[in-house]
Amino acid sequence: MTKAMEATGSNPFDNGIAQLAKAAKVIDLKPAYFDLFTQPMELMEVSIPVHMDNGKLKIFTGYRAHFNTFMGPAKGGIRYHWNVSRDEVKALAFWMSWKCTVINIPYGGGKGGIIVNPKELSKGELERLSRAYIDKLVDFIGPDRDIPAPDVYTDGQIMAWMLDEFEKLHRGSYPAFITGKPLELGGSAGRGTSTAQGGYYCFETALRELGLANPTLAVQGFGNAGMFIAKICHDHGFKVVAVSDSKGGIHDSNGLNIPEVIAFKEKKGSVVGFGKAKKISNEELLELPVDVLFPCALENQITKANAAKVKAKLIVELANGPTTPEADEILHKKGTVVVPDILANSGGVYVSYLEWVQNRMGFYWTQDYVFDLLKKQINNSFKDIWAVKKEHKIDMRTAAYVYALQKMRKAAELRGY
Ligand code: NAD
Asked: Which of 58, 190, 258, 346 is buried most deeply by CB count within 10 Å?
């Protein structure tokens, strides 16, 4: 159980199944397909022995799951966290399969993780653990089978070690085996900010659809997703009135100077204490009188306990699973539009896909070109899903699942299932 799961009693895999079930009803999906799409195709658990710096051998547990690989190889990150569990890896791989289908890339869902607190390991131990994970999974992964990427507490350096290990085992060059690599090893321009960039395109389109002018914005979480979405919105002249991180939030109804907040956070380690902004809690941030809310931190933040108090008219989910199914019902009834995670944060996996494509061609694009492709792709998916929402008079999350389910069902059907 993650902390958020413990706090809310909500299991992300159960939430994912509940979201899919709503969409299955809309298109009258046969129960056998529902069963097919909600079981991992493969789920691997490995024990990973690592020689620690003190000379002792320590055994770690790792996982990797593949979901719905009807349209292509599995794709998804590797998480290093003490709360990693079979259920969490399953839930994250399940979501990846819908996300890849929503953004129209030829992948199924994948996810992996190791139960570890990486902050307690030396650099050498971290490298040995990362290489040993690849040694254990070598037959389960690869550019045409399953393509990993970074996730919580894994980064470009870890991808580089993993790539090196994979290439040693296969005696060749396989940059397309893993994405999120440093640029020097075949990473893509724009990958670092692609999740926020994609979220921004969704936000812009949603504003137009809703006719919201001069909106005020609040951003929960100030890491890769939250900091960059706040910065991009600020750079485009939008007023960001509140941001937060794990230590708490800050609010200024006149708007925050985001580049200054970023510089402050880099120096002090938190946004809390910035300038004359009022200190608020993360709970208060979610209930502020703003037009748009960007949850960019953890799962299960908007629940049946606070959904009625959320005042934003538009929620753009850059975090995975920030809204529970009960909260979705409450928000939909009061007319709040939620751009769901599987669309709003799909910019990251889309640019990972572009990295894989570039690696396979051996030809590399500029950031402008990459973002141009991203904008077209995410806007097309947004438009199609908006049309499904209108046709069936359903919320946007259910519409996104309907859209993806129809494609997934067709692919499975064509394969003879
Ligand atoms: P990150 O670790 O870079 O940042 C997380 C931020 O959330 C940090 O600022 C942290 O202080 C803050 N935080 C932690 N607990 C909090 C709390 N209780 N309340 C408010 N803030 C809190 O992680 P990230 O990469 O930005 O990912 C954030 C979310 O976005 C996750 O759900 C992740 O799965 C999702 N996501 C990220 C990407 C990506 O490319 N980075 C892609 C898709 C989805």
From this structure: 346
